[in-house]
Structure prediction request, 331 residues.
Amino acid sequence: MDFKNLKRSSMKKIILSLVVITVIITNGFSQAKKPTIMVVPSDVWCNQNGYMMEFDNQGTAVKIPNYKKAFQENADLLQVISAINGLMAERGFPLKNMESAIKTLESNSAEDAMMSSKESGMGASESPVDKLKAVAKADIIMQLSWTINTVGPKKSVTFNLQGLDSYTDKQVATATGTGDPSFTAELAVLLEEAVLSHIDNFNASLMTHFEDMFANGREVIIRIKKWDDWEEDLETEYGDDDTELSEIIEDWMMENTVQSRYNTTDATENMMLFEQVRIPMFYEKNEKQYPMDTRRFAKLLSKFLKKEPYLIVNKVTTKGLGRATIYLGGK
Prediction:
């Protein structure tokens, strides 16, 4: 037996295996999905610069940023957001253009429609900011504010960046600081220099949050309510074992959430509130994967309740990206 050739053959196989493993690992990391981001001016900045408006939220006056007016009138805003977009793009983070999202929102003729029950006339509305998030469909809202400091002929920029989960509005990353004083008058340059030393740690926090979503699911809120004219309620019993409807819904949540993670915050005969509901990031259809969102997840429960033995007519409404309500007993 030629041990030398055998040894060479074994070494070739080992080297080949290592190469294959390395390629697989490299491809796996290179294809890792990163969160999509939309950079927006903060509420504080909009308020300080006179870009606020009021809208009626079911009888309550609410002040919100007037993003359209800010983009049309403030050239600095465009420069600043472009600078931040450039820093994020260089690091491979997909970006949503806020100005384009606003234009898409305005072209949607149904944006002002109120959703209501055909039987009772009850309805649910969402704020203009919620609608903007729904159009942009960004995973992270990157909220930015800045102030310009002037000392003699030199200027510097103090900035504050907040990374907010667009589904929950929870802060998942933050960065704040002041850049070195400079003689340059370019705001975008000053801001870029100030942010540069913080951006990588900021992005690392974003990725940690996003990786948690892949492992444990995206966090959303699901509400169950009944129309006033529906004769049944959540204590109605079904099946031979007389299981209440509320328990049936909880069992469904247990089977369809990631690692059965959800919290029943409140439950009565007329409503249920599920918070910290972890839904899958994707669903399969025709052997392909598509992004899962709150509305589609709620629709799965809606279809389950419409089938036998329950046959409950219901309606799904959404508010923003992270909240869905199922109204039982009618459309």
Observations:
- Residues 84 and 192 are 7 Å apart (CA to CA).
- DSSP finds ten helices and 18 strands in the chain.
- The first strand starts at residue 37 and ends at 41.
- The chain has two domains: 37-212, 217-328.
